[in-house]
Amino acid sequence: MTPDEDVRQEEIWDAVAAQRYDTPGTGMFAEEVLGPTVDRLVELADGGPALELAVGTGRVAVPLLQRGVPVTGIELSQPMVDQLRTKVDADALPVVLGDMATATAPGRFSLVYLVFNTISNLLTQAEQVACVRNAARHLLPGGRFVVELWVPQLRVLPPGQPGTVFTAEPGYIGLDLLDPVTQRLVSHHFRFGRGREAELFRSPHRYIWPAELDLMAQLAGLELESRHADWRGTELTAESTSHVSVYRLPAG
User: Quick one: angle between helices 210-219 and 125-137, nearest 10?
Assistant: First the structure.
C-alpha cells in the first residue's frame, strides 16, 4: 500500500475538510439519500435515544434530532464538532470527543448507528472488532446496532491491476487502490475545473466483508436481525454494492 494508510484520521478530518464536508441538497446530503436514512433510523430507535459513532458535522444526527429522537454523538475530530456546533448546541446534541472504538458516552441507548462506511476508517480488524464491542456496551437490552457499509467489489479489478475507478463525472474522479491481502484501500478523490489545476483528497480504509461483520457482531453478543441493500429495504443481491445491517442485543 501507499504511505497514505499511515495518516491519522484526525489529520484527515481537519478544519478544511470540516468546512467542505457539508453539501446541502446534493451528494450524501440530497433528500433522496438522507430522507430514507433518517426514516429508517427513527423506526429502529423505536422511541428511545440514539448514539451516533463518528457523528461528524451532524448530517444524520441533526435531522434525526429534529424528528424527535434524542441523539448523542462520539467524534474524533474537533473541527467536525465545531462545524456541528454551527447547527445545534451541546445541550441539544451532546458529543463526546474521542475514538469510536474506545470512547464512552454516558447512558444507554435504544439505537447505536454507524453510517456511510465510517467503520472502515478504522484500519485494523482489531480496531473494528473493538468498535462493534463498544457499540454493544452502549445498548439497552433489546437495542439495535446499525451499520451502513459498502460491499467490496473486488471482481471488478482487472487482473494484475491494484485500482478501480468508482466514480467518474464532470469535475470529479474517484479512484480506489486496494490490497486484497490486508483488506486495505486508499480512496483518491480528484476534483478539477476547466484549468490545469486539480485538488486531491486521500482517505485510507479497511474494508469488511458482510460475513466478517457478522462475526464481529457475534463476538460482541449481537444477533443479525436484518440486512438490506439500502435504507429503503431493497433486497440484497449479488449485484448490491452496499448493505445496511441491523443487529440486536438480546433482551435477556
Answer: 50
Q: Are 142 and 249 in contact (CB under 8 A)?
A: yes
122-144: burial string, b at 16+ Cβ within 10 Å, e else: bbeeebbbbbbbbbbebbbeebb
pTM higher than the cut 0.70? yes
Q: What is the pLDDT of residues 52-77, one digit of tens each?
A: 999 999 999 999 999 999 999 999 99
Q: What CA–CA distances, in Å, run from 217 to 47, 119, 128, 211, 249? A: 23, 13, 10, 10, 10
56 within 8 A of 120, measured Cβ to Cβ: no
Q: What pLDDT, in 10s, does the model give residues 124-153?
A: 999 999 999 999 999 999 999 999 999 988
Which residues, 6 or more positions from 195, have their beta carbon under 8 angstroms from its beta carbon? none
HSE-CB for 30 with a 13 A CA cutoff: 5
Strand 163-169, strand 172-179: pairing: antiparallel
Question: What is the identity of the amino acid at 181?
Answer: V
CA gap 144, 157 in Å, rounded: 35
